[in-house]
Every structure is written in structure tokens, then in C-alpha cells.
Amino acid sequence: MRGLLDARHRVVVLDDLSTGDAAALPAEVPLVRASVTDPAAVRWALITHAVTGVVHLAGRKSVAESVARPLAYYRQNVAGTLTLVEAMAEAGVRRIVLSSSAAVYGAQEAETIKEEAVPRPMNPYGATKLASEWVVGDAARAGSLSCVILRYFNVAGAWAGAADRPADARRRTGTGLVPLVVEAVARGESPTVFGHDYPTPDGSCVRDYVHVRDVASAHVAAVEALVGGGGDAVYNVGSGVGYSVGEVLDTIRRSTGINFVELHGGRRPGDPRR
Ligand SMILES: O=c1ccn([C@@H]2O[C@H](COP(=O)(O)OP(=O)(O)O[C@H]3O[C@H](CO)[C@@H](O)[C@H](O)[C@H]3O)[C@@H](O)[C@H]2O)c(=O)[nH]1
Q1: Which of 1, 16, 172, 267 is 20 to 30 A removed from 204 (C-alpha atoms)?
Q2: Against a cut of 0.80, is the pTM above it?
Q3: How much is the ipTM here?
């Protein structure tokens, strides 16, 4: 949203605030508090705010939670995308940028995963993102949409200014490795590494971490490509370099100056090694 505002686009946000925070929105951005699974609310928002394109980010995104609550993930991520695409057709809105995930690839042999790789999701989260891609891609092929699909790798980092938000708004920072480790260390606790027996150099999982600002820039580029008449493309959004959980912890030790000890937990269900 901040990337789009900086690029002088007008933005309206639809969010059920189940994990989001209204206090994080600048005053000039209208908020429609509703779920993307509510067809009437989505249609109302598109028409009332004269929306010309959608950046669809309204999904749940925790691998572990998706393993425990798969149906909630299909409801939110797949039914939500279907509801949105149908509402867009009814409101005559044709452009969409879909937030997808590297989780669609699952475990792949190649060192660097290209967009042409055959997706093989290995957890419900990845499956729901792939199914969302099919909904959007098939609607685009039928001529009712122009789309850009962005498959993000592991998003990390913060937007400048986020630290100025009230402590209450900062509390819900996310379910990813970096916030969980930083929060544990800040509480004086030891973070847990999930799995240390993977076939990787140090035995922990390897991921490609990409800064949230770079992910935002990718969205702005995708929006502008659609406005310029382009689209119907799939892009990976990552740094192209993998780091193990152990390397991320070492980096956090160096940058905080806190020499914390980690605990070794078992493998987390649904985790690919890289
Ligand atoms: O306390 C923790 C938290 C995580 N991990 C490990 O750290 C790695 C990264 O985990 P996490 O930050 O939860 O990300 P992923 O499960 O890889 O999934 C993320 O990355 C995907 C893209 O690859 C996104 O689509 C997802 O939304 C996002 O949650 C995994 O090996 C985890 O097992 C730990 O060892 N300890």
C-alpha cells in the first residue's frame, strides 16, 4: 500500500482486520472493514470506490497453521479469490495482481527455482495459493481479467516508520522466522530451530529472504504493467540467494549483539528443506 501511495496511485483497503491493523493505515486511505469472502461487501467496495484494479493480498499465510486448519485455508484463500474474481467481473474491474507464494513449488531439485518449474506444493497453504493462481489464470485465459501473479519467497524486514506505531499495533508482527526469533530474544527467551537433520549444509532449512520494500516495488511494477496494457505473467519475487535458519540466527546475533542460545525442536510439519 505504501509503495502504491509513493507512486501516486489512489488506494482503498478492504481488510477484515483478523490480523491487520487499522492504525497502520495513513489517514487518506479509506478502509472497508469486510472479508474478501463476502461477495456483497467486495462488490460494494469495488463499485463505491470506482476501483480500476485489485492487488489481492487477503490470504492466510502460515504453513504450520495451514497443516492444522486446512479447511480454513481453503475457505479464506481459494473461496476468497473466487469471490473476489466473481465480484470483479460483476463490477467490470479487469486488472488483478495476485499475491502467490514460492510455497507453490514445494520441494524441487533445482538449486534456483524458475517460474517454469512444475508446482508441487507440500502443504495446504501452498496448495491454496496454487488453486488461487488457477482461478485467476483461468479467468484471464477466458478473457475476463488481466493478471500478474507474484510468487514471493520469504518476506522479511520492516517499512521505515513502522517502529513509530503504537506498541499495541506492533505486537502482531507476524508468524515468520525473523519476527519470532527477535521477539523471543527480546523477551529473554531462546528461539527454537525447527529441524536440524535436513540434507542442507548445517541441517536447518534454507530459504530465500526478500525485503518487504522489494516486494512492494514488485507490486508497483506489476500494477503499472497492467495499467500499460501488459499482464498475464507469473514472476518469482526473491533475492535469488538461500540462507539457512542457522545463518539467519547468526545474523540476528551479530546485528543485535545478543549472543542467545537456540533450542533444537523437531521438524515443523509441511516444511520443505529449501
Ligand atoms: O521459530 C521458528 C520459525 C521458523 N523456523 C523455520 O524457519 C524457516 C522459515 O519459516 P517461516 O518464516 O515460517 O516461513 P515459511 O514457512 O518458509 O513460509 C513463508 O515463506 C513462504 C514463501 O516461501 C510464504 O509464502 C509464507 O507465507 C511464509 O510463511 C522454516 O524452515 C521454519 O521451520 C524456525 O526454525 N523457528
Answers
A1: 172
A2: yes
A3: 0.95
